[in-house]
Design brief:
Radius of gyration: 25 Å
Strand order of the largest sheet: 13-12-14-15-23-22-21-18-19
Strand content: 15-25%
Number of domains: 2
Largest sheet: 9 strands, mixed
Distance between the termini: 38 Å
Bound molecules: glutamine
Number of strands: 23
CATH superfamily of the largest domain: P-loop containing nucleotide triphosphate hydrolases
CATH architecture of the largest domain: 3-Layer(aba) Sandwich
Structural class: alpha/beta
Number of helices: 19
């Protein structure tokens, strides 16, 4: 078993997760079995209770774990299987250590950060290594070197590397080389200081991955190599991508990153064949077709809040050889604006998941506009609940119909708390979470797109369609295209007499990959293109 540890320097948001995932792509394509995990030094048990403003999207796994969005990159870039074991937070580590202490596991000893906390971190590395049966385990340490809360993790990986011995561990430090406009120069000092800090802890990086806006020339590379104590060829340039994050593996390959990693880890494997990946990039850079999609959300100004949704749209584009231009539309603006103006020139509208009532009326207005003007609509989780509320109010005349999440006194609670959720007080990890089976109804558009009767999709919600209204909705032409196999919960709805109006209680965006786009996103983009250009795309294979 070989281990790669990815740390970050100078500033956050450098895309360590993306770098780790892209390296995973390259190693997998060299024939290696790869596992990936993320350490998050904050004290929350998981990001499930954090606001998107704090943390961006919460990425949900099959087993229901609510995890960091970097795990989304891991799943999109590699074929690795992830579970709650793949995301460890300080909160989890301390909880385990304190449980051990109460259970008498430490036999009367004083419980300390070293060795008890660091041992627990190492135990988690070993556990994943053993369970994954991978050739290489890539571990990304969240945060930036120098953060107090990250110290136990860095000490733990240092000790771990010591035990594993030379040739088995590769340290990669992802750092930032700022360009100072006034001086017209790239600056290496922050990186030198960050590496010095790492070496103080006892970690010497094998590779420096340098994030930069401008190319780093030979002199800068020499300087970095000299002052950071790495070989010249181990200074890797990772410039901002021109078009797409999916260029990162190719960029790293050009810099021979995977060759260096394999050499450090004494892995004798053939070079990666990335031709299929190049084909994806070609479709991203120079697509045959183009389409504009409006995403109506409440965290629109945050790039990370709907990460998987944006990615899944782009994948749907790749499958149709179609470039997707995403228009981010603030739901509150729709409330007071004219939808015909706001949505002009769009091929489709997507309403993503969300919590709380801000912007709800704007989303309802968007769903109504899409339904009435036959504009393709894809609703995800809250986006399905919105579609239900809108149909109830406008078509069925249920005045003030709503979800009890937003209006507890609504006369028509068409969306209501799930039975199992009543009385739940604990917030973290208590929603309906993770992969659940769903039976699709033959003859529906959804069934045709999936080409399957039984599907499995990931969930994260407390509310659901209120079954008291099923008959009334059904009689008015609302189609329940998917339900749980026991028919107790509505999972997918769609409308007939509409080019594409599908909404799901689950989150299909979590199962989409660049080379394997999700059928609903693929169908949505094809319909949106048809809407914009009145010419159907050839149906993708
Ligand atoms: N707030 C809604 C619920 O809990 C929708 C959740 C979501 O969109 N993820 O049911």
């Amino acid at each position: 078993m070989k281990y790669i540890f990815v740390t970050g320097g100078v500033v956050s948001s450098l895309g360590k997760g993306l770098t780790a995932a892209a390296l995973g792509t390259l190693l997998e394509n060299r024939g290696l079995k790869v596992a990936l995990q993320k350490f998050d030094p904050y004290l929350n048990l998981d990001p499930g209770t954090m606001s998107p403003y704090q943390h961006g999207e919460v990425y949900v796994l099959d087993d229901g774990a609510e995890t960091d969005l970097d795990l989304g990159h891991y799943e999109r870039f590699t074929s690795t299987k992830l579970s709650r074991r793949n995301n460890t937070t300080s909160g989890q580590v301390y909880q385990q250590v304190l449980d051990n202490e109460r259970g008498g596991v430490y036999l009367g000893k004083t419980v300390q950060v070293i060795p008890h906390v660091t041992d627990e971190i190492q135990r988690r590395i070993t556990l994943l290594a053993n369970e994954s049966k991978a050739d290489v385990l890539i571990t990304e340490v969240g945060g930036t070197v120098g953060d107090i809360e990250g110290l136990p993790f860095l000490e733990a990986i240092r000790e771990f590397a010591q035990e594993a011995g030379p040739g088995n561990v590769c340290f990669i430090h992802v750092t930032y080389i700022p360009f100072i406009k006034a001086a017209g120069e790239l600056k290496t000092k922050p990186t030198q200081q960050s590496v010095a800090k790492l070496r103080e802890i006892g970690i010497t990086p094998n590779l420096l991955v340098c994030r930069c806006e401008r190319p780093i020339n030979k002199e800068i590379r020499q300087k970095l190599a000299m002052f950071c104590n790495v070989p010249f060829e181990a200074v890797i340039e990772e410039k901002d991508v021109d078009h797409s994050i999916y260029e990162v593996p190719l960029m790293l390959q050009r810099e021979r990153t995977d060759d260096l990693v394999c050499r450090t880890l004494q892995l004798d494997v053939p070079p990666a064949n990335m031709s299929h990946w190049q084909d994806i990039i070609r479709k991203l850079i120079a697509p045959q077709h183009r389409v504009r999609i409006g995403v109506v959300g409440k965290y629109i100004e945050l790039q990370d809040a709907y990460k998987s949704v944006y990615e899944a749209l782009i994948h749907g584009g790749v499958a149709n050889d179609c470039g997707v231009q995403i228009e981010q539309i603030e739901a509150e603006e729709v409330e007071s604006g004219d939808p015909a103006k706001l949505f002009k020139g769009l091929g489709g509208i997507l309403v993503p998941g969300g919590f709380g009532d801000r912007g709800i009326e704007g989303k309802i207005k968007a769903a109504q506009y899409a339904r009435e003007s036959k504009l393709p609509y894809l609703g995800l989780c809250l986006g399905m609940q919105i579609a239900v509320i809108e149909f109830g109010r406008t078509v069925l005349g249920l005045k003030r119909a709503n979800s009890t999440e937003f209006d507890e006194t609504t006369p028509y609670p068409v969306i209501d708390l799930q039975v199992g959720q009543k009385g739940v007080k604990q917030m973290g990890g208590t929603m309906r979470l993770g992969s659940q089976p769903c039976q699709l109804k033959p003859g529906t558009k959804t069934h045709r797109l999936y080409g399957a009767d039984l599907i499995h999709e990931r969930h994260r919600h407390r509310y659901e369609f209120n079954n008291d209204y099923r008959e009334q909705y059904g009689a008015a032409g609302f189609i329940f295209a998917g339900t749980t196999p026991d028919d107790s919960l509505v999972e997918v709805i769609e409308l007939a007499d509409h080019p594409f109006y599908i909404a799901t209680q689950y989150h299909p965006e979590f199962l989409s990959k660049p080379n394997h786009s999700h059928p609903l996103f693929r169908g949505f983009i094809a319909a949106a293109h048809q809407q914009m250009h009145a010419k159907p795309l050839p149906l993708p294979a």
